[in-house]
Amino acid sequence: MDTNISLKGISRIDSGSTHGWFVRAYRNNKTYSKLISDSKFESKEHALKEAIKVRDQFNKQIAKITKRPSKRRIVKSDSRNLTGELGVSRTSKKAVNGNYYESYTVSWRPKPGVQKSTSFSIRKFGDEKALKMAIEHRRKMMKKIHGDDFYKQSH
């Protein structure tokens, strides 16, 4: 067997009386799977060759199915949050000169896979004002991403 062949989507199962290769492919929250038994193909190696063929067939089959975009999960609360506003946290940063600076950091995701952040200095604005500015900025960004009704929905 060629050692450069990818086994993505193929797992080995050796449990109890089950010995074979489990093949899986996914599309639109549906799983396509099949167990290729060693005994049916006379050896572990022959079963693997068949599993690769089945995996390639699954991939051709799912390539014909239009991929639906995944629904974005929107988290609106987290019990670990200490500021009262998800996406806003109090942080301490060490500057090049060795001094530590406290700020409220705001983070948001304008689109999947993209993380943005900014911070508001506690030393510059004071604790209350920096927190207020951070919360206002977070809410502005979330409304920009999700629309005006984002904060009207229940948290």
Structure description:
The protein has 155 residues and is of the alpha+beta class. It has three helices and six strands, in the order βββαβββαα. The strands form two sheets. It has a three-stranded antiparallel sheet with strand order 1-2-3, with helices on one face. It has a three-stranded antiparallel sheet with strand order 4-5-6. A hairpin with a 2-residue loop joins β2 and β3. The longest helix has 20 residues. The model has no long low-confidence stretch (mean pLDDT 88).
Write the layout of secondary structure elements.
Elements: E1 10-15, E2 18-27, E3 30-37, H1 44-63, E4 88-94, E5 100-111, E6 114-121, H2 122-125, H3 127-146
Antiparallel strand pairs: 1-2, 2-3, 4-5, 5-6
Strand order of the largest sheet: 1-2-3
Q: Count of DSSP E strands?
A: 6
Number of domains: 2
Radius of gyration: 26 Å
**Low-pLDDT runs:** none
Portion in beta strands:
25-35%
Reading the helices and strands in chain order gives EEEHEEEHH
What is the structure about, briefly put?
The chain is of the alpha+beta class and 155 residues long. It has three helices and six strands. The protein has two domains: 10-63, no CATH class; 88-146.
Key structural traits:
three-stranded antiparallel beta sheet; 2 domains; elongated; single chain; alpha+beta; 155 residues; 28% helix
